[in-house]
């Protein structure tokens, strides 16, 4: 059986994106090029054919390193492509470039789809923070006349400061949340799917954020409502000239992953329910002979991590064991109101100082503690370090890659490795 790969789009302004993200590569002369002296003649008869024989090979220096960086500059960037192929993000350190498809005529006169730069700028707000992860999430339209295409695409960006910020396609900041003070390692999104297989539980939409020792999950419905409200407030603020935007609170859960050394990647499998036999087996392994077993198996959220010690870890969080946390928007509003009254009173009395204003502005929001979640079991291998994990569409299998160049197929329900490819 043969198949063909059809080109639907290509990139045109990659050099513009590279020059913006890597300014030191913009004015660099390619290695091997000869600088001409403007005082000498440019006639080929005066150049002398013997100049080729007199040239001695030079030892590779710093120019080769710059040449390698110039050729593989995308390896040093954070990339994210929207599932609908209508937006791509290329970010490095504090800068980012948003590429959008546009119809253009090629040299042959054909109308082709090309990715062009739609927006470029700096995303950092805190001093010294850099982009560590990016994710493009297309949001569906709620209009009845919609043709099924997304209404707009939200760009989620994680930073080394722990902040997670949400932007529009034009680079407008909609929402910023400090969920943990550690750097953001990875962002993943799970969309709603109708159960197509027997025994598969209906999965809700969810955004998962991975930190070095914690994982935060944001409910998709709460996130969608917050982003829609923030987008409407931004549009009204742009029309009226008012910059005061009060985002609604976000409902999220924060788990502190324990009994594992390092985490590189993760997968949120979703809500699952054990069979009665698996329920009794799990209760016996955890509680022993005196374990109490409920009449109905509890629903659990399953998370799988890859890293080291263990190479693959399986976590199970019981539904209802912890209440969803809310971002402290009301507290932020109250603190702003208190600081405004305090500044007004200080101005009336004449003893307001600039240091107090800077301290109020630099005050970070409160970070909620994580709920401890111990690893239930895993695949221990002291020499093997996991690098990435990918779930199957039915959430029953997963493929894991390691630093040895192997691909391991996992059975998620049984927690065992089925096959390994080299």
TrEMBL record:
One Pfam family of this chain: RAB3GAP2_N
Q: Which residues form the Rab3-GAP regulatory subunit N-terminal domain?
A: 73-422
Instruction: Cite the InterPro entries for this sequence.
Output: Rab3GAP2 (IPR026059), RAB3GAP_N (IPR032839)
- Biased composition, class Acidic residues, residue ranges: 44-62
Region of interest: Disordered: 33-67
Signal peptide start and end residues: none
**PANTHER family named in the record:** RAB3 GTPASE-ACTIVATING PROTEIN NON-CATALYTIC SUBUNIT, RAB3-GAP REGULATORY DOMAIN
The protein depicted here goes by the name: Rab3 GTPase-activating protein non-catalytic subunit-like
What does UniProt list as this organism's lineage?
Answer: Eukaryota, Metazoa, Chordata, Craniata, Vertebrata
State the encoding gene: LOC103256335
């Amino acid at each position: 059986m043969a198949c063909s790969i059809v080109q639907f789009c290509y990139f045109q302004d990659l050099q513009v994106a590279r020059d913006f993200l890597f300014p030191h590569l913009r004015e660099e002369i390619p290695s091997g090029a000869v600088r001409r002296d403007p005082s000498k003649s440019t006639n080929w008869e005066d150049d002398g054919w013997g100049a080729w024989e007199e040239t001695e090979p030079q030892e590779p220096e710093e120019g080769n390193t710059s040449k390698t960086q110039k050729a593989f500059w995308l390896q040093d960037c954070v990339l994210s492509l929207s599932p609908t192929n209508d937006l791509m993000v290329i970010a490095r350190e504090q800068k980012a470039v948003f590429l959008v498809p546009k119809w253009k005529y090629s040299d042959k006169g054909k109308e082709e789809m090309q990715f062009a730069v739609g927006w470029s700028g700096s995303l950092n707000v805190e001093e010294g923070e850099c982009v560590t992860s990016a994710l493009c999430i297309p949001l569906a339209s709620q209009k009845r006349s919609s043709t099924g295409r997304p209404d707009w695409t939200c760009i989620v960006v994680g930073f080394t400061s722990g902040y997670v910020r949400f932007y529009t396609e034009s680079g407008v900041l909609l929402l910023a949340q400090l969920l943990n003070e550690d750097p953001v390692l990875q962002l993943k999104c799970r969309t709603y799917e109708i159960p197509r297989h027997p025994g598969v539980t209906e999965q809700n939409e969810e955004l998962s954020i991975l930190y070095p020792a914690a994982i935060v999950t944001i409910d998709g419905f709460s996130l969608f409502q917050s982003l829609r409200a923030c987008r409407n407030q931004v549009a009204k603020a742009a029309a009226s000239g008012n910059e005061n935007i009060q985002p609604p609170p976000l409902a999220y859960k924060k788990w502190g992953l324990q009994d594992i050394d390092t985490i590189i990647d993760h997968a949120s499998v979703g809500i699952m329910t054990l069979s009665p036999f698996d329920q009794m087996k799990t209760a016996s392994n955890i509680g022993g002979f005196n374990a109490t077993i409920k009449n109905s198996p509890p629903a659990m959220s399953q998370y799988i991590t890859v890293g080291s010690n263990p190479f693959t870890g399986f976590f199970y969080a019981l539904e209802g064991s912890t209440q969803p946390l809310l971002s402290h928007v009301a507290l932020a509003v109250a603190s702003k109101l208190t600081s405004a009254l305090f500044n007004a009173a200080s101005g009336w009395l004449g003893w307001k100082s600039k240091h107090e204003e800077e301290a109020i502005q630099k005050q970070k929001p409160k970070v909620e503690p994580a709920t401890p979640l111990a690893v239930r079991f895993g695949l221990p291998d002291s020499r093997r370090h996991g690098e990435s994990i990918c779930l199957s569409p039915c959430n029953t299998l997963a493929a894991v890659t390691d630093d040895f160049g192997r691909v391991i197929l996992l059975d998620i329900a049984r927690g065992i490795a089925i096959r390994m490819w080299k």
